[in-house]
Amino acid sequence: MNPLASMNPLAAGLTRAFRGLRTGDPQLILFGAALLAYAWLRSRPSGRELVYSKTLKTGDGVQVRFTEPA
User: Whose C-alpha in 11, 18, 42, 58 is 20 to 30 A from the C-alpha of 28?
Assistant: First the structure.
């Protein structure tokens, strides 16, 4: 087994899925597929992004207005 596979869900998933296919072990195939799905979900962008950032002095206030996207 790849020594780095334990640190990387994509590599671990591929290793386990292919080993399960080679040996015919359905549990190993499903576990590898679950790790691959987890790695795929983690690699997708969250859709959130920082719009504005500023450090405030003590006593300053913040007013936030929500508007519809343009």
Answer: 42
Please give the Cα distance from 31 to 28 (Å, whole number). 5
Q: Residue 9 in contact with residue 42, Cβ under 8 Å?
A: yes
Please state, in angstroms and as integers, the Cα–Cα distance from residue 60 to each residue in 23, 50, 54, 55, 57, following that order: 64, 21, 11, 10, 6
pLDDT tens-digit readout, 31-60 = 999 999 999 988 887 777 777 788 889 988
pTM of the model: 0.57
Cα–Cα distance list, 7 to 1, 27, 38, 70 (Å): 12, 21, 13, 42
